[in-house]
Amino acid sequence: MDLTRHLRHFLVVAEELHFGRAAEVLGIAQPPLSQSIQRLERELGAELFDRSRRQIELTMAGRLLVGEAGRFLAGEERLRTTMRQAADGELGTLRVGVPPEMPAVTLHALLGHVGEETPGLHLELHELTTPEQLRGLASARLDAGLVHHPVEVPGLRSGPVVEIPLGVVLPRTSPLVLARPETRRPRGRPWEIALADLAGHDLVVFPRETSPAWYDRMLDVCRAGGFSPVRLKHARNPEFLLGLVLAGQGVAFEQEAIARREPRLVWRPLAGNPLVRGIRVVWPERSAHPAAARFATLATEVLTRDAAGTPRVAPRTSPSPTPRPWSVIYTP
After folding, report:
1. What DSSP letter does each residue of 47-94 carry, written as one string?
2. DSSP label at 240?
């Protein structure tokens, strides 16, 4: 029995207390409406209308059902709305991998933007390298990931590549910094450093297994530009990378926001902008989370603004303290 339809019929008859007028309101003939009410009465085991008088009246059971039917139908509508929102990716939990070196300001902007646009979506963030994210996507432990480009893996969909220019991170006491004082920087910009200027230095870089394609490309660009590192020193964690550079153990290539974490280091753009790190959102092509594509759009907007240096708009504030729809999970 279509209980919802019969309850809607009942509420209209209860409002009109006249089968003819109720049938007109519902746009159906009176006999089918009478049959609908009779079937509902048989199903519930109680008479809902007193038909012994000229004008029908609600019985005690009918009066009780008016309130119960209203709550039932309202609950059903809420259920349907919730399911539609879940199917559209506006609700639920989205498990997303993010690279360990993502700057705090970018992470804050990403969470804020997603929270503003899809407040019912719960983001569960995992700090993982690109290969770790790809394994998580393959085993369905992740729904989406922010990975370094290039990545060619069958069965994945992807958003646009966002290109983030990298500069060189140096100690403030480095001759490459002291030889070009801040007071002489051209057009208000930091002095650019050519890759060939770094000859004779060691290079602090993430391990190759964290992003093999980008690792190989970076070293190829360095050699082509006249910089063949004396030694390679590996650092998985950005803080460890900055610590090695600060200790004079080499130079590093990173985005400016990373270098800002340590005031005793400086960041300088590379002449000709030869090193551009690509990042994009990927998610499974089959059985994709409903929110994955929407998240890719929102994340691309944030990363593009960051790469272009566009000032951020402060997020709108809620009039009452509301828990933010995400959690951050850091893995060893």
Report:
1. --EE-SSSS-EE-HHHHHHHHHHHHHHHHHHHHHHHHHHHHTTSSEEE
2. H
pTM metric for this prediction: 0.67
* Residue recorded with tokens 């691309």: 300
Query: What pLDDT is recorded for position 125?
Result: 95
Q: What is the DSSP letter of 143?
A: S
Beta bridge partners of 168: 253, 268
Q: Which residue in this structure is represented by tokens 């994210």?
A: 133
**Pair 307, 288: CB distance under 8 Å:** no
Give the residue carrying structure tokens 């209203």: 70
- Half-sphere exposure of 144 toward its Cβ, with a 13 Å CA cutoff? 28
Tokens coding 146: 């922010």
Tell me, letter by letter, the H, E, C secondary structure of 246-265. HCCCCEEEECHHHHCCCCCE
Q: Which residues are CB-neighbours of 215 under 8 A, at least 6 positions away? A: 205, 206, 207, 208
Domains of the chain and any CATH numbers: 3-87 (1.10.10.10), 92-163+277-315 (3.40.190.10), 167-274 (3.40.190.10)
Q: Tens of pLDDT along 236-270?
A: 888 999 999 999 999 999 999 889 889 999 999 99
- The string of pLDDT tens digits covering residues 116-171 is 998 888 899 999 999 999 999 999 999 999 999 888 788 999 999 999 999 999 99
Prior bond of 160 cis (ω within 30°): no
